[in-house]
Amino acid sequence: MKDASKKFRAALVQMRCGREVEQNLDDAEAAIRTAANGGADYILTPENTSLMELSTRSLFEKTLPEDGNPAVLRFTGLAAELKTWLHIGSMAIKLSDTKVANRSFLITPGGGIAARYDKMNMFDVDLPDGESYRESKNYQPGEKAVVADLPWGRLGLTTCYDLRFPALYRSLAQTGADFITVPSAFTMQTGEAHWHILLRARAIETGCFIFAAAQGGDHEMGRSTFGHSLIISPWGEVLAEAGSDPDVVYADIDPSLVAEARTRIPSLKHDRAFKLPTCQEPRIKEAS
To answer: In angstroms, how far is CA 81 from the centroid of its own chain?
Structure first.
């Protein structure tokens, strides 16, 4: 049962992950402990918490199935030790010899897994500066949206490129989400152009808090990510922001602000059916 009158402290862990899983896990654990010591009740890490790797061969060599996965066991044990909600933004989880999942884990203070979410929208993009990404080459997209109950409200789970699909966010909000997560590894180019705008828009459109933990800086495998982890209020205000370096940022969250924002702008209740134009419809001709 949620208690919308009870405030809680959220923390975002910003990382700069590399190609060595064990080092990434050590860095994540150190930052998570810092967040817990800072009073965080809920801690979110970024996308690719365990590994940043472009090589297909190395990705599959370093990725394991979920069952018995040492990284999963390490994080569930850490959540239980710290007695905090720990949300691992995503890790690569092997599904087969040719596909992995980009999977998010929401872990309870007792060390149980409350929810899993496999990233649905694949980043298959050619950027103007020559960068090219084909996430679907190695990753199996998820097939369902996910919400989970926290003590303070409902949490909707998304990952990185999902941010560009607003219908997903509206659906999560209309399903009861009060908070939506966007763990990410945004490129430098797209982050500079769109990161703040898109995250604030998703908060305003849904009346949700947005928690977006990010990767930031120059990674050893050659990528540069934007950083700037953000916590945003349902009214679109930036409550906490990191820079480009590894960091932990906090905000005290008042869940009652969700209902307040949705009362002021009740657009989630105002959907109307409409017809789409078809290619067969005649164009309007100018008068001769």
So the answer is: 24
